[in-house]
Amino acid sequence: MHDSPDPGDRRDAVCVVGAGASGLTAVKNLLELGFQVDCYERETAVGGAWNWRHDRSPVYAGTHLISSRPLTEFPDFPMPDSWPDYPHHSQVLTYLERYSAHFGLGEHIWFGTEVVSAAPTGDGGWEVTTRSTGGGSSRTSRYAAVVVANGHNWDPRRPTIPGEFRGRLMHSSAYKDPAVLRGRKVLVIGGGNTGCDIAVEAAQQAGQVWHSTRRGYWYAPKYVLGRPADQVNGRLLRLRLPLRLRQWLYRRTVRLTTGDLTRFGLPAPDHQPYESHPIVNSQLPYYLGHGRITPVPDVTAFDDASVELADGRRIEPDLVITATGYRPRFEFLAPELLAADEHGRPDLHLHVFARQHPTLAVIGLLQPDSGVFPLAHWQSVAVARWLRLRLDDPARAAAVQQQESAKPLAAWSKRRVVKTDRHWFEVDHLDYLRSLESLLNEMEPAA
Amino acid sequence: MTGFDLLRLKDWTDPVPPAGREVASRLPEDDEGRPPVLFVPGLGHGAWAFAEHWLPHTAGRGFPAHVLGPRPGGDLRAQVHDVVQTAASLPRRAVLVGHGVGAHVVARALARYPARAAVLVAPVLDGWAAAGSALLANPGGTLPALFGGRLRVSARQLFGSGLPAERAAEYLERIAPRPRAELLRRAVPPRPVGAPPVLVVGSPDDRVVSRKALDRAAAAYSGAPLLFPGMGHDLMLEDSWAEPIDAILDWLRKQV
C-alpha cells in the first residue's frame, strides 16, 4: 500500500456490506475472481439474520428452513447430507460459519463496523464511510465497487391499526421463545410462513389462538408422497410442464393433501398457486382441525382490551403478534442510487444491478420459491464476472450492458403476483436462474 | 468444457441418498496451514491403496491427508457427491487427488466444489480407450466383463516390472473392480469452478491409460502431463511410489 498516496484509497478493491449468507458468498466469489475485498459487518460474527445472537436477527427458537436442504444450500458447498430435510436455524448458522472458515473469508471481514454512507465519486468509484457499530470515529475509504448485502429481513413492517391496545403487542421480529405464549390468549396477524409457524407454536402453548389473515392462501404441506414438497414440485418443473398445468396439479395436490380449508373458516385463495410466496406448513391445518387455531379475518381496529375484526366480531386477546414482514432498508445509500420508489423498494436489473451505477450491486434482495442461498451465490458470480469484464474488456462490458437492458422484465421477475407490499421481489427460481445463466454466458470471453 | 451449471434439477428433486463414508486420515504433527489433500481411489481400489504409502508420506510433508473409500455399489454421481461432501467437511479448501476412475470422479467433482487444486493421476476419462487397452493387455480377464461377467485384472496391467511378484499378488487380491456401463464413454471434463490449478500425472508405460489419453486429459486443462516412465498404472503402489507423490507435493507447494 506504500505506493498509494492515500491510505484510504483501496483502488480496485470491492466493498461488501454485510457478512450474512449473501455477503459471505459475495466475498467468496469476488475473491475467487481475484478481487481484493473489504467486507463490513456491524455485528461481531458472521451469519447475519441466521445468527440468533444478533439483535437484528428475525429467527426464533423453533425456526426451521421452509425450503428443503438441496434447494437451500450453496451450489458449491453442500450442507452435510446427514442433516435433516429441513434443518434448524442453528444448523444453518453452523453451515455459514463453516462456509466462512472453509474459504478463509474471515480475514477479509471487518467486524463490529457499520457502513454509514456510500457515495459515488463520479469516476465510477465509491467513497465508503464506516465507523464502529454504535459510534466512534468514522473513516472513509475509496473502492472500485460496492456490493450491498445488508439483508431485507430486519426492519419490521408494522401494520397501522387504528386505536390503542392495552395488551401486549409485538412484531414477530421480537418473538424468540414460545414461553411468552404459554397460557396466554394470542392473536397472530399475518398469513406468511412466519405467521403460520407462530400460530402453530401458539396452538401448542397458548390458551387460545386466533390467526388473522387478509386472504386465503394455498397451504402446501412440507411433505408430499414422503418427499419434501419442493422436491416433488421440482419434478414437475423437470418435466417442463406449462404453468397452467402446474397450477392445476398444485391445486390437485393441495386438495389431496391439505384438503379444503374453507371448512374451518379460512377464506378460499383469491389467486392461483405460484402467484404469491408459497406457504409451506403441514401443521396449521392439523391445529385448525383440532380447534386449537381459530381463523379470523383482517384486524380493523384496536379498542382498549379488544380487537375489532373486519367481519364486525370483537375478540379479547392479551398478546398480539404481528407477523407482517420486513421492509428493505438501505440507510447508507441515497434512494436514487438504487432507483428506489416511495416505499424504499429498489428498481434493479435482475434485482441486482443498479441501472445507473454499473459498480453498485445488491445481493440477496429477492424472494424465490426456493432457498435464497443458491440464488445469492449465482448473483455474486454474475457480479464478480461483471466487474472483472469491466476491467478486462470495457468495450464488451458496454455491449453486454446494452443487451441486458433490452431484456424484458417478465423474463426474470414474476409479474403475476398478488398485489401486496411484500410480493414485489418474488421470483420463480428457475426463470430467475435461467436469466442469470444467460447473463453469465454473455459475459464469457469469446472463444 | 461446458458452461455454467445453474439448473440442477436432478439434484434438487432426487438428491443422492446419504451413506456412511469411509475416510482415513493422517494429519501432520504441526498444522502449518497447508490445504488438506483428499485422495480418491479408482475402480476396485479401496482406501488402502493410498493408505499404503501416499497418505502417510503426504502427512509427513506437512499436508493433512485424507482418503475416501468408495461407496459400495455407488454410481459415478454418488461418488462425485461423496467427494464433494467429504471435501466440504474439511476445515479448509481441499486439494483433490484422484487415481484412474477416481480421477474421473475428481474431474466431475471439480465442477461442484472450488478445490484449492487438483491432481489427476493416470486418469480414466475415456472408458472406451481404457477398455481397449485392457482388452489388448489382458483379453481373458476383460472380455467377459464386456458381456456382464466378472472383470479380472492382471499384475501386468496395473504394475510395472519393478514390483516384486508376491507384493503384486497380494495387492491384486484386494482389488475387486466392478465396472459400470456408464464408464464406457469418452467423458468431456466439465469446467471446474473456482479455476483451480490442475495437474495430470501418469506413466507412458501405463497399460490402462495410454500416453495419448494422458496428453488429451492434460490438454483439457491446458497443460502437459507429468510423466514417470517405467511405472505401471498403480503409481501409488509401485516400488518407486515416492517419486510421483514427491513431484505432486512439490507442484502443490508452488501452487498454494
What report would you give on this structure?
The complex is a heterodimer of chains A (447) and B (256). Chain A has helices spanning 21-32, 89-102, 193-205, 229-238, 243-257, 283-289, 373-392, 394-405, 429-442, and strands at 14-17, 37-41, 109-111, 113-120, 126-132, 138-143, 145-148, 155-156, 168-171, 185-189, 208-212, 219-220, 223-224, 227-228, 279-280, 294-296, 299-303, 306-309, 314-315, 319-322, 326-327, 348-349, 353-354, 360-362, 367-368, 426-427. Chain A has 2 domains: 14-155 and 326-442, FAD/NAD(P)-binding domain (3-Layer(bba) Sandwich), CATH 3.50.50; 158-322, 3-Layer(bba) Sandwich (FAD/NAD(P)-binding domain), CATH 3.50.50. Chain A is built from 9 helices and 26 strands. Chain B has one domain (9-255): Alpha/Beta hydrolase fold, catalytic domain (Rossmann fold). Chain B has a 7-stranded mixed β-sheet with strand order 1-3-2-4-5-6-7, with helices on both faces. Chain B has helices spanning 9-13, 48-51, 54-60, 76-89, 101-109, 127-137, 139-146, 155-158, 165-174, 211-220, 242-255; strands spanning 23-26, 37-40, 65-68, 95-99, 117-121, 198-202, 226-227. The model of chain B has no long low-confidence stretch (mean pLDDT 93). Chain B is built from 11 helices and 7 strands. The A-B interface holds A 32, 69-71, 75-78, 80-82, 98, 101-104, 230-232, 234-235, 237-238, 370, 378, 381, 430, 433-434, 436-437, 440-441, 444 and B 3-18, 81, 84-85, 88-93, 112-114, 193-195.
Please give a quick description of this structure.
The complex is a heterodimer of chains A (447) and B (256). Chain A is an alpha/beta fold and 447 residues long. In chain A, 26% of the residues lie in helices and 21% in strands.
